[in-house]
Amino acid sequence: MQLASFRSILTRYKAVFLDSYGVLKNHMGLIPKVEETLQFIRDNNQYLCVLTNDASRSPDQLAANFQKNGLTGIEADEIISSGMMARQFLEYKIRKGGSVAYLGTENSAQYILQAKLRGVPVSQVKEEDDVQAMVFLDDEGFDWNTDINKTLNLLRTKNIPTIVANTDSIYPVSQNDVSLATGSIAKLVENIVNKRFIHFGKPDSQMFMHAFERMNKLASIDRSEILMVGDTLHTDILGGNKFGIDTALVLSGNTRKDKVNLLIRSSGIIPNYICESIVN
Amino acid sequence: MQLASFRSILTRYKAVFLDSYGVLKNHMGLIPKVEETLQFIRDNNQYLCVLTNDASRSPDQLAANFQKNGLTGIEADEIISSGMMARQFLEYKIRKGGSVAYLGTENSAQYILQAKLRGVPVSQVKEEDDVQAMVFLDDEGFDWNTDINKTLNLLRTKNIPTIVANTDSIYPVSQNDVSLATGSIAKLVENIVNKRFIHFGKPDSQMFMHAFERMNKLASIDRSEILMVGDTLHTDILGGNKFGIDTALVLSGNTRKDKVNLLIRSSGIIPNYICESIVN
Amino acid sequence: MQLASFRSILTRYKAVFLDSYGVLKNHMGLIPKVEETLQFIRDNNQYLCVLTNDASRSPDQLAANFQKNGLTGIEADEIISSGMMARQFLEYKIRKGGSVAYLGTENSAQYILQAKLRGVPVSQVKEEDDVQAMVFLDDEGFDWNTDINKTLNLLRTKNIPTIVANTDSIYPVSQNDVSLATGSIAKLVENIVNKRFIHFGKPDSQMFMHAFERMNKLASIDRSEILMVGDTLHTDILGGNKFGIDTALVLSGNTRKDKVNLLIRSSGIIPNYICESIVN
Amino acid sequence: MQLASFRSILTRYKAVFLDSYGVLKNHMGLIPKVEETLQFIRDNNQYLCVLTNDASRSPDQLAANFQKNGLTGIEADEIISSGMMARQFLEYKIRKGGSVAYLGTENSAQYILQAKLRGVPVSQVKEEDDVQAMVFLDDEGFDWNTDINKTLNLLRTKNIPTIVANTDSIYPVSQNDVSLATGSIAKLVENIVNKRFIHFGKPDSQMFMHAFERMNKLASIDRSEILMVGDTLHTDILGGNKFGIDTALVLSGNTRKDKVNLLIRSSGIIPNYICESIVN
User: Fold this and answer.
1) pLDDT of amino acid B219
2) Which domains does chain A carry?
3) Which ipTM value was assigned to this complex?
4) DSSP of C131-188, one letter per residue?
């Protein structure tokens, strides 16, 4: 597949869904010049939604984080995260009064669990606690040496719904290196306890659906008028393809130029376009 | 969990999503007296949608099949099938001109592939054919002794998107016996070729989303006003839970009364209600 | 890794373990000139054992099969098959009096089950039969359209040991094409019933151990004096490496020259030598 | 299955293979009165071998550890560990001169790697190091927060053989709680890098084979004269069954009395006997 200029394909659409990590920012911060593309989108009266498998922060914090890094113009209500999906599920499905155990930062817990549910870090769960659910939120904020085992033992004894709010396996931490993400830690535990966890995040249709509904409150937008842009075939492109919208794979994140054709051929996940980044 | 009377919970909702096999019908035909429940739903001006992982027939044929068996009053446009999802994907993503190889009955192919795509049973694919995609449609309509191997060899050589239009593993064929369904055959091949197939069907949110959008064209219905009814925890109940609607598990299909509590506890998939069937 | 001449490395060893399919023969029959290499081995007073994951025939039949194809000089007692391992297990572990259900040819059953155990093809198992065990023997000899489902239902209801006598996933049937082998069919069923089957065959140490013990009855041979030759990294080479003997991968079967370096690097299974075949 | 008295079955055999953890000792130390059973074995001139999936200590240290806890009479050369198997493999397969990266304690590394191979804890591996292999040795001795990621990145970039010297998933740390063992950590990494690691430990036949060969240097002992005793179906009993010896499952470790029948039925792994422990 030939590389396309992002600007040239962008103009064919009325709205764009953007992945965050690997598209707008990377381990070094904002990807240079993405703010120009954002400005272009605004100037052309196009609609925008950020779809991110990040469950560690609230949309307000994610928006503030963009701004702090020099990307103004993304509103909190233009951000849909897997954390939001998990949050809605917990709000709806877990009866008030019990507590919810979590692996992650206190900040991520505050967002996901809100005021109605009492969040307890796994390290602080006591035997007598009435734990209603378990949530995997983030790979930071706890001691892997002790808390993964605690989680394992909690789930061996209590039959409670277990939510994985970020299904990513790994994420890049430098040019060459990656780090295990929440999804991997959850999978490790899931395999041992042999129970079915509930996963939120691309490629599942939910976030696409939320973004679509939200956008259609602003203007009437058809699926054919939306472009999904992401750096990962298995989450962004597969999810966009299944949702029925056009997809563009960028090479500014997880997928490297020297491997892209091989990956597309071997996975069978085919984007409509491949672009260097959203900048060119 | 206590068993609830289906009628008593049904009245709390404005709309109901129903699984087909194990809820409305089983291997012997229509489950006795379900037509009375359907009538009750109509009399109460409730809305209805059938969500089925059946890709072997068109909605028109599925509706006709219900009628033939004594269940009048389900319109074709009240039926959402995984086959429809696969059909839309193929229509949108596969360029016209090539052919699409399939494992299934000619009838299922006619529906999924429509007129624009030339469907070719795997057994008839020739080397020189320009095969654009592969679709697993049904466990019938081909010779397992020869055609599974043909499919395997086709996918080893051609890097084409492969769609699994019915993700069920097994389905009951008698009181005690089951049969391997399309999902199992696809999984067998998927593991050997080590590529990522594209699966359509519950528990994925897509079908729930389609049903929700369709219903909201008729009346304004909120998620809290919908009840999902199914016989399988991993598809119907998990799908309904993730979509954010209440769920009722019936014991008239895949899930047996003597195993239900164990299955709920071990899977962590918890329905709001358990009922013997939709009849009581 | 550089290609080595098989003759040149062969002379460094006192004994050689040979895989059969892909080393001595292929889908077309005997690989041309292997009989010369066999003669060379005999002339040099080297010891030989054939280690094959073929459970469809007895060693006598396998030896006769070699002879029929022009390879004289391999005695039945120089052949160790996964079928033999399965046979010994059944003989030892299953009490006489019951019957053993199998998927495979009658010939393979006659060998594996001997006279003491009453073998019944899955298609003929009746409800009242006292089935003691289930054995997957071969991918031929039964109707895939009906008998895989019968096996599935048998194993869903009866808690009996299930033996897989040939763990190969696929085997080549022509230059380019493969066929699903017993191992794949067993895996399909194993995943659905969610029970642990008992597998016999390389890379498991058992067959290497039997060959080693058998050879040492003829002469004192140390592990360092044995070379394992095979065409498949995951069975022959991994098995030989784990058993502690040198290994040579040949490119006359499953592993193609254009893919070998990639496969070795990606699998981490490293043979001591790579040769075109045992002929050069 | 009925419970049998261990003493009564023990006398039927000439030799016994014993698992260590869950049979001789547990998280609290030596299981009370096992030294009496050991004395009984000695008094009856029976032969003994301890087969353990423990790779964290040398046989000398394991023997000393028994003695320190009150169990005299187990010689170092009566202990066969998965660590020994890994050690032999590394000694044989890794060329001198390079270094071997490991996750585990320095003590476990000293044993496995000996003097010829330079062992480097993953945390200390530098880019310029010539790392020849990676070994997972123990779940202790490193910081899970940092070193699992380091291992992941090392294996993503270098194509080196990776050895898992202890394949246990979990081990009990108290009456009710378990801890993740080396096998789980290795599996986590193995799945992400998508390469094949080399595993040593029961149920693989290797350790049984070593014990059998070693014993037969002392006296002529046939397989029918050996009893394998263990607390885990998937490693001890399956391994013993496949090796062709009788097996006894004890309920003093991993397998609880209230679950044993269910586990045997659902796994299909059937011991010849079930005993409370080796004490009764």
Assistant:
1) 96
2) 6-53+202-275 (3.40.50.1000), 84-199 (3.40.50.1000)
3) 0.86
4) EEEEEE--SSSS-HHHHHHHHHHHHHH----EEES---SEEESSSS-EEE-HHHHHHH
